[in-house]
Structure formats: structure tokens, C-alpha cells
Amino acid sequence: MDGNLETKYGEVFIDLDVIAQYAGSAAVENFGVVGMSAVSMKDGLAKLLRRESLSHGVQVQIDGNKLTIDLHIIVSYGISVATVCQNLCETVKYRVEEFSGLIVEKINVYVDGVRVID
What we know:
Largest sheet: 5 strands, mixed
Shape: elongated
Strand content: 35-45%
CATH topology: Alpha-Beta Plaits
Number of helices: 2
Mean pLDDT: 84
Number of domains: 1
């Protein structure tokens, strides 16, 4: 299911993969976020994703015109996880709503790891 917008000129259809890529890009720009992660079901380890794979750490669900976004992130060591998550939610919500015109109802953040940054 994709995001649909009714405009005076017609309908706009937004693929959820596009929204996931955009949300992942907005997420990694936040201070304290090292990157997106993918959890391997085989060994349960969180893997830091490369810049090209940002949407793999993001899951987007849609109900009507309301989005639920799940973000799997790796945070920087020594930084308040609560503060990083709060800033992350505010930034991603604002950027995705401005980009898509859809309403972000909920953002779930899963901190899958911590990395020491040199």
C-alpha cells in the first residue's frame, strides 16, 4: 500500500520505499546517530548499514494518510540516548511530513547498538 494524496490537479502516489529512504536519510543527519542498523536474524547482531542502504533500517506502515515509522539506529557512545531519540523523532516527523504531505502518527526508535567514535 502506498501513500496517496488528493490534489486539485489529481492524485499523487508515493511509494513507501521512497518515504523509508527519506526518513533514513533524515535520521542519520541527527547528532548522536552513527547510522541505521539491520539486525541479522541468524546471529542477532546489529550491523551498521552503508549510506546506500538507509531504507533497510526503516520500516514504514500506512493507515489512511497516517504513517508509522520504525527506525533501527546505532548511537554514538557517551551521548544521552533519550535526547538523541527525542531529537530524532522531532526531526524525522517534521522532514517526512514536509516531504510527503502525509501525517506521521507514530515513530518507534529501536537502538540496536552503540559505537565509539574516534
